[in-house]
Every structure is written in C-alpha cells, then in structure tokens.
Amino acid sequence: MDMGLLGQFIVNGMMLGMMYALVAVGFTLFFGVLDVIKFSHGDVLMVGTFAGFSTYLGLGAIGIDNAFVQLIGVLVVAIGSMAILGAIIARYLVLPLKSAPPLNTLLVTLMLGTVLREAIRLFYPDGSNPKRFPSLLPTDSWTIGSFNLRADSVILLVGGLLVIVGVHVLINRTRLGMAIRAVAQDEETAKCMGINFKMIVLLTFGLGSAVAAFAGVMNGLYYNEINFGMGLLLGVIGFSAAIIGGLGNIYGAILGGFIFAALQTLGAVALPFASAYKDVFAFAVVIALIAWRPTGLIAEKTSERV
Amino acid sequence: MATASALELKNIYAAYDSADVLEDVSLSVPAGKITCLLGSNGAGKSTIIRSILGLTPPRSGDILVDGESLIGLPTHKVISAGIACIPEGRKVFPKMTVVENLRLGAFQESSESVIRDRIDQVFEIFPRLKERKGQLAGTMSGGEQAMVSIGRGLMAAPKVLLIDEPSLGLSPLFVKENFNIIRRINEQGITVFLVEQNVHQTLAIAHYGYVLSQGHVVAQGTAKELSENAEVHEAYFG
C-alpha cells in the first residue's frame, strides 16, 4: 500500500481511538463510583459540542474573530457546561435511583439521551440539519514523502493525550482521585473514612461529562461537521470500549477505545468490500472479544485473601 | 459514672436487615476508657455501630458525641464529629497501597505534616506496615490487613474509636496481639467502644461493658462485675 495512505489511516485511527477512549473513560468512571450505566453519555457529548458551537457563533456575533480566542471560548463553555449538566444528571436522576435496580438507571438515562437528542433536533435553530463546525486550529501541514501530516491533527492528538494524562494524574495523585477510587472500591467504608459520598458522585459525573464534551469538540474540529445524532454512535462505541477493557478500569477503557478504532481502521483498509462495513466488522470482533473475555481484557490485579 | 460520656446512646430503636433489631437501647461510653459491647450474632451489635455512623439511621432515640447529637447527620459529618471506625472484616481498600489506605483514614485532615506524623506513629506501632507500605492491601494476609485497618482507624485521631469484631477471622495469636494494641491505643487517651463476641479477652482489657441480647441491653457493669455476673455467665460465657 501507498505509504501516504497508510500514514493517513494511522493518524485517523489514532484520532478515533482518542475520542473513543475519552468517551469510554466516562462510562468506566460512572460505573466505578455508582455501579450504573449512564446511557445518555453520548448525547451529553453532543449537547456539549453544540454548546461549544453556539459559543463560536456568539463570539463571532460580537465581533471576536481571533481563532485562538474562539477555540478557548468553545472549549471552556463546552467543558464547563457539561461538567455542570453531568453533576445535575447525577444529582436529580441517578442518585435518587440508587436503591433501585441498576436497569432502571440504564433505562432512565437511555430516555434522557433521547430527550437531549430530540431537544437539539427540535429546538436548536435548524437543528435537524448538520452544522458546519469551524476549523479553529492552524491548517499548516508537513509533507513527508507521500504522507501529508496536518498540524490540526497533531494538536488534537496531543490535546487528547493531555486530557487522558490529566485524568490519570487526577485519579492517582490527588486527594479527590483517592476519594473517587475509595468510593469505587467500597462505598460504605469510604463514607466511614469521612468522604462526602454524594459530593464525590457529583464530581465524578461532572468530570466524566467534561471529558466527553472535550471529545465532542475534538470530533467537531476534526470532521468540521456536527449533528444532533453524533452522540449516539459515539456513546455506543465508548460503552463497548469500556466493556472490552473491563468496566470500572480506566486503563482498560483507554485500551478498549484504541482497540475499537484499530478494528474500524482495519475494517476500512483490509476488507475486500467497501469501507461501509467497517462498523459491522468492528462490532463483530467486539462480540467475539466479549465472548472470549466476558469480564474484559484487563483482569483484576488483586484477589481478596483472608 | 464519674467520668463524662464521650459517646452516648439514648433510647435507640433501629432495624437493619429486618433481623437485627434494636429496642430501647441506651448506653454510655465514658471518655478515656474502653467500653465493650458483648453479644452473640444477631443480637444487634452491628446495628448499633451502623446507627452511630449514620449508615442505618435509628427510627427514634438520640446519639450524642460530647453532648452534640449525631441524629440526621450524613456519615462524613459523623466522622467530622470525632468518630472513627475499624470496621468488621477489616474492609481495607484492596486496590490501594498501605499508605493510601492510611491516608484515607485521615481524609478530613488537611495538614500534610500532621498526616505524615500520624503515618509515622502508625509505623511505630506496626513496623511491618512500614516494610510493606507500597504493597496493595488486597494482596496482604488477614493479619496484615487487620494492621492496616487498625492503623487507618488511628489516622483520624478520633475522640471515639469504634472497633467492630476485631478478632473475627484472625488466628488466636493475632487476636491476642490485637487486643494488646487496643489497650495501648486506649492508654494514649483515645476512647474505645469495642464490639465483640470474644468475651474473655474483651473483658480482660475493657473497663466497662454492656451485654446485648435480641436487641435489648440485658446486663451492664464494670468488666469485673460482668465476668462475675452469674446470669451473664450462663447465657454468654458458655
């Protein structure tokens, strides 16, 4: 195969993997602290992207046309508003159902996802049609042989990597992260250590939703197009990635995200028929993976001993 | 009683798991002493601990720490009031290191130097934990986990330390060592409320005790009085 084309596939696969990993981290965080599946996660990502897009339009309307300022504005509003929305969903929808069967939470958040999706479709100006998301990143590119590496792709990949590293540091090196892990491992004992359980749940849902909003903006900047349904497939893929990696394990979720993207890319490149089948291929392999390793690829490291 | 109560339960009615029910339980834990609560399985011992911690709020009655009521407080506020707990079955955080477990014990303490001092104090009591400070608690033996759990309880520097069945599932040698450590903790000025089934060893270190049966306090007195009480003897000492 042509080296340039191969390079393109690799960059594209890494970009997708990064986005899927960011979405999967949310699923795995929520499951960690509360043992619930929040199915509205993909649609929260979509709402965040639209919030960012509206910020871009708003900044343009008041005459701010510096791309860097616009980018910062888009990111701050998308991430900030989804952190708040995530915490609100946790407070008013997920926590009240804590003693109910987990299926109820899954169903309620599934319905919330539909509400969010339809709300954007119906109430956002011309919401049923795709929107052109602006290119706010430098458009320089470097040509290496037949391979054309774009600066915006590099910036997006580095940005995604920084977010993942940031989440890792937050979870493993901070007091908040220690509390999140404690709640995930043993809720009652965590409470007995003096941890404010409800606050940790709200912060965790805020964190996961903020990371999803970042992934949404990343998606918009990469494809230059957003629509009200964009969260649906991203949500399902992120969820699958979290499951493949072992739900509750952050590194598993990241690994799962990149595995899924690798499968899609492989499906697009290697399959003899059209790349339209890449999702069919990827999901079929996911089904096989789950059948092979029902509890995820990364096994629990510790066993409890008496 | 001559000394003031650090912890007091007044006319507590509570239910947990429907079988473990408390009816009109009143007891007082004097400051600076070891007070024990004896009783067989299902007598309501865990419900008392859960009520104090706010995990199973009582239906009626009052729980006071230094005269302040804990009723209606979420668990983390109960901890702020000066309660710490060494839970039944140790309950270490299995996927965290020894040091992380200890740090969680002092979660509400914001001063890093105070936390470090307390970790050093715990390492002095349990030199073995210092050797294994980076090990994941879930990979340790039961006896070592008990050390982590006790150390974690001490990290909060509580007014009142609740200890729930420390001998459960441990070898007799460890049980003996644990009871010695509980006595040492108390000698450092920490009020201890010890819940146990192991009557002889408990009464050997406790100052005062209560006997719980089917949700009622059926006997109370100094450790000496309890061990001489014929009725208690027959029912619980075998």
From TrEMBL, chain A:
Keywords from the named record: Amino-acid transport, Cell inner membrane, Cell membrane, Membrane, Transmembrane, Transmembrane helix, Transport
Please state where this protein is localized: Cell inner membrane
Specify the protein's topology with respect to the membrane.
Multi-pass membrane protein
Q: Which Pfam families match?
A: BPD_transp_2
Which terms under GO biological process does the entry name? D-alanine transmembrane transport; L-alanine transport; L-isoleucine import across plasma membrane
Domain of life of the source: Bacteria
Q: Name one GO cellular component term.
A: plasma membrane
* Keyword RNA-binding part of the UniProt annotation: no
Q: Which family does it belong to?
A: Belongs to the binding-protein-dependent transport system permease family. LivHM subfamily.
Name listed for the protein in its UniProt record: Amino acid/amide ABC transporter membrane protein 1, HAAT family
* Record organism: Marinobacterium lutimaris
From TrEMBL, chain B:
- Check the record and name the Pfam families matching this protein: ABC_tran
Q: Which UniProt keywords apply?
A: Amino-acid transport, ATP-binding, Nucleotide-binding, Transport
InterPro entries assigned: AAA+_ATPase, ABC_transporter-like_ATP-bd, ABC_transporter-like_CS, BCAA_Transport_ATP-bd_LivF, P-loop_NTPase
Q: For this chain's UniProt record, which GO biological process terms are given?
A: L-amino acid transport
Q: Which SUPFAM superfamilies does this chain map to?
A: P-loop containing nucleoside triphosphate hydrolases
GO molecular function list: ATP binding; ATP hydrolysis activity; branched-chain amino acid transmembrane transporter activity
Q: Which domain of life is it from?
A: Bacteria
Tell me where in this chain the ABC transporter domain is found: 7-237
- Report the sequence similarity comment from the record: Belongs to the ABC transporter superfamily.
**Could you identify this protein by its name?**
Amino acid/amide ABC transporter ATP-binding protein 2 (HAAT family)
Instruction: Please name the source species.
Output: Marinobacterium mangrovicola
Lineage, please? Bacteria, Pseudomonadati, Pseudomonadota, Gammaproteobacteria, Oceanospirillales
